[in-house]
Amino acid sequence: SYVLTQPPSVSVAPGKTARITCGGDNIGSGSVHWYQQKPGQAPVLVISYDSDRPSGIPERISGSNSGDTATLTISRVEAGDEADYYCQVWDSTTDHLVFGGGTKLTVL
Amino acid sequence: EVQLVESGGAVVQRGGSLRLSCAASGFTFNRYAMHWVRQVPGKGLEWVSVISWDGGRINYADSVKGRVILSRDNSKNSLYLQMSSLRPEDTAFYYCAKDSGPTADAGVFEFWGRGTLVTVSA
Q1: What are the chain B neighbours of A96 within 8 Å (beta carbons)?
Q2: Are A43 and B109 an interchain contact pair (Cβ–Cβ within 8 Å)?
Q3: In the structure, what pLDDT confidence band is assigned to residue A13 with cuts at 50, 70 and 90?
Q4: DSSP secondary structure letters along chain B
Q5: Which residue of A has its CA nearest to B106?
Q6: What is the mean pLDDT of chain A?
C-alpha cells in the first residue's frame, strides 16, 4: 500500500516560515491535499491539488509538489497556526485514500 | 451553509454492531461522493470508506473491509455506515466528509462533520 511520510513535529518562531514535508514514492505525479486540525475540532482543508487555496485560507499558506516530496509552507507564522497538519492523496492503484501520519506544528 | 451531522456513536462490546448516520444539508447531496474518516483520540486520520454520488462505486480501507457496509439514501440526504464484528481497535471518532466531486476518486474533503465517537470495549 502507498505510504505518506511526515515528520512528527515541526517547531518555528512567530513570524518565521514553517515547512512541512510529505514524502511518498513519486508523489509529484499525483495531487496532494493538506488539512489543518486544531484540538477538539474537525480537520479543515487548507490546500487542494498541490497548491490551490480554498476560499478563506490566507495567502501565507502555500503548497508545492514535485518528485518524491510535497511541501506545505506557512509564511509569517502566527500563534493561531499551531495545529496538526495532514497530507493526503488518492492512490489509484488500490482505489484507497491515504493520509500521512500528521505533523504537529508548534509555534515557539 | 453546508452541514454534516453524524450520529449513532455509542459504547459497544467486542463483536457487536453499530450503524452510523450522517445527515447532510446545505448542498445538493446527490451530486457528491461522500466519505467516512476515523481518528483514534490523540492519533492521526484514517480513511474508512467512500461512496460515489449514485452509490455505484464503493471502496473500503483494508482495515474494515468485510466488516462494514457503506450506503446512502439520496432521497433523505443521508449517509450510513453499518459496522459489524467490531473490535477495540475500531474505537475512534468517525467523521463523514463531503468530497468536491461526484466520483469516488477525487478525495478532496471540503467539508467535515464534527464526528461521532464509537467505543468498543474488550
Answers
A1: 47, 59, 61-62
A2: yes
A3: very high
A4: --EEEEE---EEETT--EEEEEEEESS-GGGS-EEEEEE-TTS-EEEEEEE-TTSS-EEE-TTTTTTEEEEEETTTTEEEEEE-S--GGG-EEEEEEEESSSSTT---EEEE---EEEEEE-
A5: A90
A6: 97
